Amino acid sequence: ETGVTQSPTHLIKTRGQQVTLRCSSQSGHNTVSWYQQALGQGPQFIFQYYREEENGRGNFPPRFSGLQFPNYSSELNVNALELDDSALYLCASSLAGGLRNEQFFGPGTRLTVL
Amino acid sequence: TQLLEQSPQFLSIQEGENLTVYCNSSSVFSSLQWYRQEPGEGPVLLVTVVTGGEVKKLKRLTFQFGDARKDSSLHITAAQPGDTGLYLCAGKEYGGATNKLIFGTGTLLAVQP
After folding, report:
1. How far is A103 from chain B (nearest CA, A)?
2. Which of A3, A23, A53, A78 is most open to solvent, judged by the fewest CB atoms within 10 Å of its CB?
3. A94 with A101: CB under 8 angstroms?
4. Where are the alpha helices (DSSP H) in A17-74?
């Protein structure tokens, strides 16, 4: 069974640029969620994708957008980067339905905005 | 608004000591997970609890879900240096429109040899 993978592992951008982060879900999972984790804090929910459509969104501006592909992999796009976007971006995969709602995380992408 | 509050925020103990981490909320959760995260890595799922009053054991770790499903605790017996890490509780709010996980503030544990 393949776990959740993310790329790249690290990324440095400047203010105003755009970035795309990628995630491959665990085999057998059909739902992908993205979280932002600032240093010293718990992860904050950005959005979730199921059946290639956004299925819930946290308190993040529209410049945060995403995609899910037929193979359940996903992308997170952030436009017009701001300094406060510097964080660890985590992707989690899960299987829709069921009471347990267990989500399994990838290693994350560390984004630094200068 | 932080729905899940964890305490303590930081804990530094000696190898062999016992400790308890608390996760509290005024909201009801339909399921609650505990994760451990090491620096620069993603959170690793330790356990999921779904029933009020449920107790689960994972070797030296004991997890309990409150009867009202608003709080949880993690107890570690005879802590070892390998237990060092950031412990996060996370839950799905009962009746929530999405399956998003709401994370706690985290407890940073350091076990000194």
Report:
1. 8
2. A53
3. yes
4. none
B48 vs A110: CB contact, 8 Å cut-off? no
Report yes or no: B63 and B72 within 8 Å, Cβ to Cβ.
yes
Half-sphere exposure (Cβ direction) of B3: Cα atoms closer than 13 Å: 19
Pairing of strands A109-113, A10-13: parallel
- Minimum distance, in Å, between the CA of residue A97 and any CA atom of chain B: 9
Residuewise pLDDT in 10s, chain B (113 residues): 558 999 999 999 999 999 999 999 999 999 999 999 998 899 999 999 999 999 999 999 999 999 999 999 999 999 999 999 999 999 988 877 778 899 998 999 999 99
- Report whether A34 contacts A74 (CB < 8 A): yes
d(CA A94, CA A51): 12
Instruction: Give how far B79 is from chain A: nearest CA, Å.
Output: 22
Chain A hits for B35, CB-CB cut-off 8 Å, are: 105
Q: Which residues of A touch B98 (CB under 8 A)?
A: 48, 55-56
Asked if B31 and A107 come within 8 Å (Cβ–Cβ), the reply is: no
A40 secondary structure, DSSP code: T
